[in-house]
Design a protein that fits this description.
Length: 501
């Protein structure tokens, strides 16, 4: 055969190298346990009691009936079910500029490249070397070249092949572990994607709810101010005393104290949305949200419990960590066994370039190095035990993630059920408080009741309006939380896949 330099060799060394490599590969094996995916939990439903297939409804914002539908798939862009273009635009901006998501994408590339680099160790390493040198031999010595020249040049091209046969599968297990780590990074990226989109949706809903509460508080302040103006006129003509006026002034001040905390919360929500979109809080965005601009999705996915372990990215990431840990057991076992390194060199060394590729200037050598740990004070044994413990840790962490995930779904399903009941109660309470205030004002103007009766009606109405806005927001938030708890539909969009062996 000829090497990269065009030198032709006898076949003995090459046959020997091929025979040694073939024999080693035929007798190689892979140490350690093979990974098997955890079985899905054998449960039929998320909650102890069967869930109703639909919620109750009420005529108010976010009060429509919702239906839990078996086997209903989750769209990749589930937030579009709220039918808000400003919300869609904000999420699109966040997906483009959020630094956490960009960092997760970079972490995925790091993990994939590390796995590819490790996979290269399964193949021989070949290097080429060209070493031209100029020599001067001392005149007190005899010249070593045939021409008896004391100054001569020596040119040596050489190929070196180094190969570490994976006799016990240590390298293969290391590749397997790194590929599993790449899969972990993939699903961690999906988890960050899901968390980001869910946080934007929930922050938007919170902003809209706070705006409703601010409006309710401002209406309550306006009513209290109007009542005070009327009382001041009555006081000026002697119809009421100073105590009644002072009481109303205190009521107005009390209503006004509610407003600044709400305005603070609104500003903080705006800051949060700016940061989620990868901007500084001072970089204001144009969108402003109100609950009336959002549509509550009517059909909700119930989801089959056995499929949750496939859909939740955090569960899939935890599963990949088990895979990585199990492969590391094989690595630790292989490190306790003999290690073989095969090296081969072939080249030519000539004084004259014209004879560089002649058969007389060639050289080659083949070597095999076998290393077996003899005494390491138990270091390799303890590393194997540590790998086994790390595997057990990953298994229990996986179980913890699964349990928490099922709790998320169960909590959210119950929240959706009771949110509808709470909203109906809040809507009825608001209507009753509005009627009560109107009647109280009429009776007070007619002189049938005192001012304290009107004041109590005002406070009840203000609290009812705020409670209504909070309950409206809860329905939207828990609906978004259900999509998040069920995995967010990442499987319905194009995502990068972990590299394969």
């Amino acid at each position: 055969m000829r090497n990269a330099w065009g030198i032709k060799y006898r076949h003995a060394g090459c046959h020997l190298l091929s025979t040694v490599i073939a024999a080693i590969m035929l007798n190689s094996c892979v140490m350690g346990p093979d990974f098997h995916r955890p079985l899905p939990p054998k449960i039929k439903q998320y909650t102890a009691q069967p869930l109703p297939t639909s919620t109750i409804s009420v005529k108010t914002t976010g009060g429509n009936k919702q239906y839990l539908v078996n086997n209903l798939d989750i769209p990749a862009q589930w937030w579009k079910l709220f039918h808000s273009k400003p919300l869609n635009d904000l999420i699109a901006s966040a997906l483009q500029t959020n630094p956490d998501l960009k960092a997760a994408a970079a972490a995925l590339r790091v993990a994939q490249e590390n796995a590819m680099a490790q996979r290269a160790t399964l193949l021989p390493y070949v290097s080429a070397n060209l070493n031209p040198t100029r020599h001067l031999t001392a005149h007190t010595l005899s010249s070593i070249v045939a021409s008896n020249a004391y100054v001569y040049s020596l040119t040596t091209p050489q190929l070196t092949v180094s190969y570490v046969p994976d006799v016990f599968g240590g390298n293969m297990r290391q590749v397997e572990s790194l590929q599993a780590q790449a899969e972990t990074a993939l699903f961690q990226q999906e988890a960050i994607y899901l968390t980001l989109t869910s946080n934007v949706v929930m922050a938007v809903i919170q902003e809209a709810s706070i705006r409703e509460q601010i409006k309710a508080t401002q209406r309550s302040i306006a009513i209290a101010q109007k009542q005070l103006d009327m009382m001041l006129k009555q006081q000026s003509v002697g119809q009421i005393g100073a105590v009644a006026v002072a009481t109303q002034q205190a009521a107005l001040a009390q209503a006004q104290t509610v407003l600044p905390p709400l305005q603070k919360q609104l500003a903080q929500q705006r800051h949060l949305l700016s940061v989620l979109c990868g901007h500084f809080p001072s970089e204001e965005f144009a969108q402003k949200f109100e609950l009336s601009s959002l549509t509550l999705p009517e059909k909700l996915p119930l989801g089959i419990p056995a499929r949750l372990i496939e859909q939740r990215p955090d569960i899939r990431a935890a599963e990949a960590q088990i895979h990585a840990a199990s492969a590391q057991i094989g690595v630790a076992i292989a490190n306790q066994l003999p290690n073989i390194v095969i090296t081969a060199d072939a080249g030519s060394s000539a004084i004259e370039l014209g004879t560089l590729f002649s058969s007389l200037t060639k050289f080659w050598d083949i070597g095999l190095n076998l290393t077996q740990p003899v005494f390491d004070a138990g270091a390799l044994l303890h590393k194997k035990r540590a790998a086994i413990a790390a595997y057990q840790q990953a298994v229990e962490q996986y179980r913890s993630v699964v349990l928490a995930s099922f709790q998320d779904v169960a909590d959210t399903l119950k929240a959706i059920q009771f949110d509808a009941i709470s909203l109906k109660t809040a809507a009825n309470a608001t209507q009753a408080a509005r009627r009560s205030l109107a009647i109280a004002q009429q009776q007070w103007e007619a002189g049938a009741v005192d001012h304290l009766f009107v004041l109590n009606a005002q406070q009840n109405y203000q609290q009812a309006l705020i409670t209504l806005a909070q309950n409206q927001a809860n329905r939207f938030i828990d609906t978004a939380a259900l999509f998040q708890a069920l995995g967010g539909g990442w499987w319905n969009r194009d995502v990068c896949s972990p590299i394969k062996a």
